[in-house]
Amino acid sequence: MALKYTPSQTVGPYFSMRLAEPGQNVLVPLSEESRIRIVGRVYDADGEAIDDALVELWQANRHGRYRHPADAREALALTPGFSGFGRSVMDPVTLEYSFDTVKPGRVPAPDGCLQAPHVCLVIQGRGMLRPSWTRLYFDDEAAANADDFVLKRVPAARRRLLVARRESDVTPTYRFDVRFQGPDETVFFEF
Questions:
Q1: d(CA 36, CA 30)
Q2: Element spanning 146, H or E
Q3: Per-residue pLDDT tens over the stretch 15-65
Q4: Measuring CA to CA, which residue among 187, 171, 147 is closest to residue 30?
Q5: Which of 5, 144, 167, 173 has the fewest CB atoms within 10 Å, measured from its CB?
Q6: What is the pTM (predicted TM-score) of this model?
Q7: Of the candidates 36, 59, 38, 25, the residue with the CA atom closest to the CA atom of residue 163
């Protein structure tokens, strides 16, 4: 019998990433008129959906202001009850993460211009020593995306890998799948 090794990008023993509480993926009340939904799957190097990944989201509100002490732009309103942070585990049936939130407004870039609407995502899973960081942009924000401070620094051929596709208009729903390795590997950032 041949011995099988643990894949090089993972560590053992394996455990389940069940760190999210019910409701942590809902950032806004269901009555919020500017509500959107973000959905997606997380795929491993073999193209298989990871059933126990944990996805965290951090974003500005629809006015482009973060609920954070470092964002002192008082001219922009804070949204009552909106933290800008959410956490989602994979649904056991669909193997998808989801967030009910609002499309974020534009925030300042280091060069003083405005960044395109985006959310920051952190992905964790069994066997990962460190989480992976990425951004999600929206396909219906093409003009803003073309001028985005961060997106312009990603090789042109790979920028599409950071853009979520709008799938539904009833509650605007955007799909953003995360892929580890392979030709369509998600662009990840180091901090």
A1: 10
A2: helix 142-146
A3: 444 555 656 788 886 666 789 999 999 999 899 999 989 999 999 999 999
A4: 171
A5: 5
A6: 0.86
A7: 38
> Can you read off the two tokens belonging to residue 127?
């066997």
Distance of alpha carbon 67 from alpha carbon 85, whole angstroms: 9
The 10 Å Cβ neighbour count of residue 138 is 23
Write the pLDDT tens digit of every residue in 128-174: 888 999 999 999 999 999 999 999 999 999 999 999 999 988 889 99
What stretch of H or E contains 102? strand 97-102
Query: Following DSSP, what letter does each residue of 109-145 receive, concatenated?
Result: -TTSSBPPSEEEEEEE-TT-SS-EEEEEEETT-HHHH
Pairing between strand 173-175 and 35-40?
parallel
CA distance 187 to 57: 16
| Domain range summary for the chain, segments of one domain joined by + | 35-179
Asked, as a colleague might, if the bond just before 13 is cis with ω within 30 of 0, I would say: yes
